């Protein structure tokens, strides 16, 4: 997201805080919490929405700088906002010239993985 999309997100959040939360965090616990806070009063909805967006952009900049967040931000339930979905975990390793998976037996692929089935890639055997 560039500067224009951030400004557009702020404008949307000013008029309807749950919509801004939905655009950043998706449909989940953060959205439900923001809807409840907005119904209780617009000010709590604003505070939560802008806090969520601030954490999102702060974590995004940290990840670009090579700083991986290790702690969860309080009162934020979305992994997308926390920045944890951008961590790439290796699902395979090469041991003694042999291809082995780090996943349980019978599973191929995984979250953020691009694993090929060994029978489809015979050059790795």
TrEMBL record:
Name the segments for region: Disordered: 104-125
Q: Major place of localization?
A: membrane
Q: Which domain of life is it from?
A: Eukaryota
Q: Which Pfam families match?
A: Pmp3 (PF01679)
GO cellular-component terms in the record? membrane
Quick check: keyword Lyase in the entry?
no
Q: Which residues cross the membrane?
A: 7-25, 31-52
What InterPro entries is this protein classified in?
PMP3
Keywords tagged on the record: Membrane, Transmembrane, Transmembrane helix
Q: Localized where?
A: Membrane
User: To which protein family does this belong?
Assistant: Belongs to the UPF0057 (PMP3) family.
Name it. Answer: Uncharacterized protein
């Amino acid at each position: 997201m560039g500067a224009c999309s951030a400004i557009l997100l702020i404008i949307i959040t000013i008029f309807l805080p749950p919509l801004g939360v939905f655009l950043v965090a998706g449909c989940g616990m953060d959205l439900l919490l923001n809807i409840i806070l907005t119904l209780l009063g617009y000010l709590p909805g604003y505070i939560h929405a802008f806090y969520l967006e601030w954490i999102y952009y702060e974590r995004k900049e940290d990840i670009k700088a090579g700083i991986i967040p290790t702690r969860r931000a309080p009162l934020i339930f979305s992994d997308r906002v926390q920045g944890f979905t951008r961590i790439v975990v290796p699902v395979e390793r090469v041991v003694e010239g042999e291809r082995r998976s780090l996943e349980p037996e019978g599973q191929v692929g995984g979250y953020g993985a691009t694993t090929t089935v060994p029978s489809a890639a015979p050059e790795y055997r």
